[in-house]
Design goal:
Elements (H helix, E strand, L loop, with lengths): L2 H15 L9 H14 L13 H14 L2 H14 L9 H6 L4 H9 L6 H37 L1 E2 L10 H7 L4 E2 L4 E2 L6 E2 L8 E8 L5 H15 L4 E8 L3 E3 L7 H6 L9 H9 L8 E6 L8 H13 L3 E8 L9 H9 L4 E4 L4 H10 L10 E2 L2
Parallel strand pairs: 5-6, 5-8, 8-9, 9-10
Antiparallel strand pairs: 1-4, 2-3, 6-7, 10-11
Length: about 375
């Protein structure tokens, strides 16, 4: 190893170890070490580099955005909120203007929604709107395409008008008895085709979202997906959020930012009460997809909650439980309730946002979810 390589390795170790090991760093390296020390030095206590003023924190945020990529900045911001108790400073407009917005920051802002002074509220909405716009750009187009394709495939006809409308796989399976071995051909006496796209509502979708504090990321993604689904004329979409109270946000689905600021993260959980409300929204059980997005920690009446789910499935409602709708990996959830739901044929699993369009397509076509990549499955 040459001298330049040794110097670079020593530089990196000084930055990793910090403290006394960082002696001799200069210029940008010294500033980078100071930014790391402000957050991670001190054994978990408040670092000396931040203190309690919003301007100083804003400068620190500017430094870490200069030295680190956005994915690292987001991790450091979340660590700062948790380790250094910076929640109060998020109420300051100058602080909000300096942060790198992400889903976790939106969750923190929503938990502070009722505490925000008016001067910080518009800055917070601007941060939330930036994140929502990023999520819509990433997810909306694929969701619409997956749902539209599934609706078209789920509509069958035995009188397709064009060759392009014929579902050849189903047609071949339906006519296997008409195979002529001597000619090596199959006579399709019955055609199976895709139905023409209809403008009327074909499915009802009810999103029932747990807004307890542990479900913050799921609330954000659910609001975005709810708005996307509500924009499709072939679906009738409802969005209900709950803790111990139930709030119907369907009328606000035209703007997911309004939806998010209509939530109140934290509090208890009464799943039974929320399901009872959602039952009243369902008008066509056989054509309804009910998505309960919850970690299943029930603070209400468990037995009645399970009876309501059983009644919905018996009526023909397609019930799906998402233990989380986020990128955060395997969630914490109530295993007993998940097992009880699975025993009655209700799937319960965590779903990543990127897998959600495929999940909706499978639900519309009533296909198995086994081929969809999920974070984890309930048991």
């Amino acid at each position: 190893m040459g001298e330049p390589e040794r110097d670079e390795r020593a530089r990196r170790w000084r930055l990793v170890l910090g403290g006394a090991a960082a002696g001799g760093l200069e210029g940008a390296d010294a500033r980078m070490d100071a930014a790391l020390a402000a957050l991670y030095d001190g054994g978990g206590e408040r670092g000396a580099g931040l203190g309690g003023s919003a301007p100083r924190v804003a400068r620190w945020l500017g430094d870490i955005r200069e030295f680190f990529p956005s994915t690292v900045v987001q991790v450091m911001q979340q660590d700062a909120i948790e380790r250094l108790d910076l929640t109060r400073l998020l109420l300051e407009p100058e602080m909000l203007e300096a942060v790198e917005p992400d889903v976790h920051l939106v969750g923190t802002l929503l938990s502070l929604n009722r505490l925000m002074p008016e001067r910080a509220r518009e800055s917070a909405r601007a941060v939330v709107r930036r994140v929502v716009a990023q999520l819509e750009a990433r997810l909306a187009r694929r969701t619409r395409a997956a749902v539209t394709g599934a609706l078209d495939r789920s509509a069958r006809t035995h009188r397709p008008r064009r060759a392009a409308d014929i579902d050849w796989h189903r047609t071949i399976r339906a006519n296997l008895k008409n195979y002529l071995p001597d000619r090596g051909t199959l006579v399709p006496s019955r055609l199976v085709g895709y139905g023409r796209r209809r403008q009327a509502v074909q499915r009802e979708v009810v999103l029932c979202v747990d807004q307890s504090g542990s479900m913050a990321a799921s609330v954000v993604y659910s609001s975005v997906f709810g708005a996307v689904l509500a924009s499709m004329r072939s679906l009738r979409t409802s969005l209900v959020v709950f803790d111990t109270a139930v709030v119907d946000l369907t009328e606000q689905l035209t703007d997911p930012v309004d939806v998010l600021f209509g939530t109140q993260l934290g509090g208890g959980t009464d799943i039974n009460r929320a399901i009872a409300y959602c039952q009243g929204l369902i008008t066509r059980p056989a054509d309804t997809i009910f998505l309960l997005i919850s970690d299943l920690y029930e603070g209400g009446v468990r037995e009645e909650m399970l009876r309501r789910v059983a009644a919905m499935t018996a009526a023909g409602v397609q019930v799906i439980v998402l233990l989380a709708l986020s990128d955060e990996g395997t969630p914490q959830y109530d295993h007993d309730n998940a097992a009880a739901l699975a025993a009655m044929g209700v799937p319960a699993f965590a779903c990543t946002p990127d897998a959600f369009p495929d999940l909706m397509a499978a639900a519309i076509e009533r296909r198995s979810y086994d081929q969809i990549p999920m974070a984890s499955r309930g048991s």
